[in-house]
């Protein structure tokens, strides 16, 4: 992307893409991010107690042997659907008063390829990006390899993104 694009054109381009378009433009002090650390730690405890980080639960899911993980994922989807409905219906804003905008996304075959790669990685490693840190926190230090691989994969995608068919 060219550096000479004005902010509105940049927003228009990003709204057509899968990048974050609702990113806040507000500048905060560093300690404002501590709230995310606290929520992340609490979320990690929830993952541990719900057995979301269990390699065995993930294997059960991919072998279609248990409903446990499908129930958790289905519940998350239901909560997200209800939340989005209320955000749209009541025009709810962020806590800083910023408007939340939902943009239509067009389907493309890259989503299938990406989903398959993600699913294979999840099935092989027993980890997806959400629980990685909780797994490491429980002492499964081998997951650091998975974390580094996820970071490397994200970097490689970002590097070749403009050259890939979308």
From TrEMBL:
Keyword vocabulary terms for this entry: Membrane, Transmembrane, Transmembrane helix
Protein name per the record: YeeE/YedE family protein
Pfam families tied to this protein: Sulf_transp
InterPro entries tied to this protein: Sulf_transp_TsuA/YedE (IPR007272)
Source organism: Kaistella pullorum
Membrane spanning residue stretches: 34-56, 68-87, 112-134, 140-160
Keyword Nucleotide-binding attached: no
């Amino acid at each position: 992307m060219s550096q000479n694009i004005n902010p509105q054109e940049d927003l228009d381009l990003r709204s057509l893409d899968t990048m974050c378009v609702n990113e806040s433009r507000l500048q905060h002090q560093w300690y404002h991010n501590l709230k995310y650390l606290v929520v992340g730690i609490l979320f990690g405890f929830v993952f541990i107690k719900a057995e979301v980080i269990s390699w065995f639960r993930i294997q059960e899911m991919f072998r279609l042997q248990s409903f446990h993980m499908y129930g958790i994922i289905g519940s998350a989807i239901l909560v997200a659907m209800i939340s989005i409905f209320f955000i749209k219906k009541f025009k709810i804003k962020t806590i800083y008063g910023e408007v939340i905008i939902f943009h239509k996304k067009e389907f493309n075959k890259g989503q299938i390829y990406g989903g398959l790669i993600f699913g294979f990685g999840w099935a092989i490693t027993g980890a997806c990006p959400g629980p990685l840190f909780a797994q490491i926190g429980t002492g499964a230090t081998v997951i650091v390899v998975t974390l580094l691989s996820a970071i490397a994969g994200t970097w490689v995608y970002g590097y070749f993104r403009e050259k890939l068919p979308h």
